[in-house]
């Protein structure tokens, strides 16, 4: 494992744990007699979409962009870090 990869796990690992734990606790709030005072991310986004219709456009555009990037560049056309390579015109 390279130093860059270790740094990535060091940075994104705790962030993933914090988000995961808070989401699980929020999802279990009803089971815990509403002891958890915050909503889940999906219920917050759903509430914003219901109040402001343009939020739906942002959510769909983000999902489409991520899906396109994941599918449009096969593994052979990516750098070692996973980014898309710049195309060269010969």
What would you note in describing this structure?
With 90 residues, the chain is mainly α. It has 2 domains: 38 residues, no CATH class; 51 residues, no CATH class. It is built from 3 helices and no strands. It is flat, with a radius of gyration of 19 Å. The mean pLDDT is 84.
Blueprint (SSEs and pairs):
Elements: H1 3-27, H2 41-51, H3 54-72
The global form is: flat
Helix percent reads 55-70%
- Low-confidence runs: none
The gyration radius over C-alpha positions equals 19 Å
Mean pLDDT: 84
The ordered string of helix (H) and strand (E) elements is HHH
Q: Roughly what fraction of the amino acids lie in strands?
A: under 5%
Distance between the termini: 35 Å
- When the domains are counted, the total is 2
Tally of separate helices: 3
Structural class: mainly alpha
Biggest sheet features: none
Tell me the number of strands: 0
Q: Gist?
A:
This protein has 90 residues and is mostly helical. It has helices at residues 3-27, 41-51, 54-72.
Descriptors:
single chain; 2 domains; mainly alpha
């Amino acid at each position: 494992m390279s130093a860059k990869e270790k740094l990535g796990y060091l940075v994104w690992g705790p962030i993933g744990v914090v988000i995961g734990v808070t989401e699980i606790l929020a999802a279990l709030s009803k089971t815990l007699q509403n002891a958890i005072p915050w909503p889940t991310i999906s219920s917050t986004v759903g509430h914003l979409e219901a109040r402001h219709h343009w939020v739906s456009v942002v959510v769909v555009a983000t999902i489409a962009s991520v899906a396109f990037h994941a599918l449009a560049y096969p593994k052979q056309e990516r750098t070692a870090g996973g980014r898309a390579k710049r195309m060269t015109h010969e």
